[in-house]
Design brief:
Layout lengths: L10 E6 L2 E6 L3 E3 L2 E10 L5 E12 H9 L7 E11 L2 E16 L5 H13 L8 E11 L2 E11 L2 E10 L4 E10 L2 H6 L7 E7 L2 E6 L3
Length: 213
Amino acid sequence: GRMLTLKDLDVDLTIKGKNLSLRPRKPVQLFDGRINGKLDVTLVENTDYKADFNFQKADFGKLMKTFFDNDKVSGNFDGAIRVNGFFKDMKSMSGEGELTIRNGILYPIPIFGALSEVLNSMIPNMGYSQADQAKTHYLIEDGVVNMDKIDVYSTAFALIGSGKYNFIDDDVNMSMRVNIRGPIGIITFPFSKLFEYQGTGSLNDTEWKPKAF
């Protein structure tokens, strides 16, 4: 339900029987980055698809603005997605991918907003630190994005965790551990279990609570 603008589009389009294939001759511009890959579609009533795309140096802020109307996030991202399913059934989507965000201001992302305030309660402004890198590998099945490992690093802290997001029901279930970096991190390491948090709720209103209590 969002309008995407593709620039410098140069694609070979082939129709053979009921099969439609699209193959870019060169990377296409999307979110000021480059996207390459392939798309195959079966031209029947219940149209199915198979897509394999990779992204390079795209603007993460523009992606967040497009899909979540959030203009406070920055950074650039690389990634890949390999999926298949039926166009009329979002739950049929299955596949996997990777996502890496670099040099990003991530605390305004809705899912991490409340967690940033938790970090600020430990050390003032720690939750507003620029993230040097955030990355995850994910699987998509039955309307759920499963992230087996999520790593977010900044000079002040590291967030390490895993979780899932049901994009059909807009339901988040995520677990994150906060590791404070530097000398304070060495002092607090024996109490690291106290810095584990569980996030639940919707993507735009995720509530974070300590797991130890």
